[in-house]
Design a protein that fits this description.
10 helices, single chain, four-stranded antiparallel sheet, alpha+beta, 4 strands, globular
Length: about 200
């Protein structure tokens, strides 16, 4: 009774206060009858859904060489047309003529291989085109467009199937991993030359 006497004047001014104090909202007990509260519909919170992850591949840069056997036959344009048709952009490019020593540094990872000396001589025999390709999953895409190292095993439509003369004179080189690409790009290009 004492509590009701206290809450009645409070409830007449602030109907929600009495119900809140006793945990009763428009109940059927004595407090609910003394201070009837209109029932209010409260919508449940909207269901939370995680945003969908993008299905796009990461944009990468990879290193590419058009080798002496291809530049000698004026195939630079035909080869780059295949890269571009596959969605790769050429963001840096230069035509250079390596010395054997420069080729040796670039291919130092193969120094213990029996073909190392012959490879360096070949890469210094004619001008080459070095370039940086950019696109979604560029390293794998470049590898796919180039085809297998052995042109006899390369898929139809690939660069090596169409243009390579042999396993050694296979027209193109491409990086095989992000770490390799970073090292090879830095060997030939300064940062300001990458203009994608």
């Amino acid at each position: 009774r004492l509590l009701l006497g206290f809450l009645r004047p409070l409830g007449s001014r602030f109907p929600w206060a009495a119900g809140l104090a006793l945990g009763v909202w428009g109940g059927t007990g004595p407090v609910g009858k003394a201070f009837p509260i209109a029932h209010t519909h409260v919508s449940p919170p909207a269901k939370f859904t995680c945003p969908k992850r993008s299905t796009h591949m990461a944009i990468q840069r990879t290193f590419s060489i058009i080798k002496p056997d291809a530049t000698k036959r004026n195939l630079t344009g035909a080869i780059n047309a295949k890269f571009e048709a596959a969605g790769l952009r050429i963001v840096a490019q230069k035509r250079i003529h390596l010395t054997k020593a420069q080729a040796g540094v670039f291919y130092e990872v193969h120094k213990e291989r029996p073909f190392y000396d012959e490879l360096c001589e070949f890469m210094a025999s004619e001008p080459i085109v070095v370039q940086v390709l950019e696109g979604e999953d560029a390293i794998a895409k470049n590898s796919e467009v180039m085809g297998a190292t052995n042109p006899a095993e390369a898929d139809e439509g690939t660069i090596r199937k169409e243009f390579a003369l042999s396993i050694g004179e296979n027209s193109v080189h491409g990086s095989d991993a992000p770490e390799t690409a970073a090292v090879e790009i830095a060997y030939f290009f300064a940062g300001l030359e990458l203009v994608g």
